[in-house]
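Amino acids appear as letters; backbone shape is given numerically. Here is one record.
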Amino acid sequence: MRAYQLARELSEVSWADAEKLKKHRVTDRIAGQVYAAVGSIAANIAEGYSRSSGRERARFFEYSLGSVRESMTWYRTAKQVLGEVVANERLDKLEHIRRLLLAIIPRERDRLIRPLNPSDPHAREPTD
């Protein structure tokens, strides 16, 4: 899944970004926030991907989308320390992930991953 790959790439560089932020008095408190928010993107995609229903997958992908938006806010805040070029590279990658998730979430919501159990009163028929 491309969104997951991009999120993993971003989480690898976010450690160095957090270290740089930690060295500045003004941004030392957000360093951990940046690293946690970026790490949460890939983690929620991975957890959602393992779910048995599309609706559950979509829920975790929505969590990931929230982490993307949080990360974007932190990287905008950190531009003065990280530099315009680095911050914009991170923001571009986050925007790419955001667009992918916005396309994936509606498709997953009504997708059936495993066959319905006919004895389950909460099971519903798949829709096209």
The chain has one domain: 2-109. The chain is about 75% helix and 0% strand. The chain has a mean pLDDT of 90.
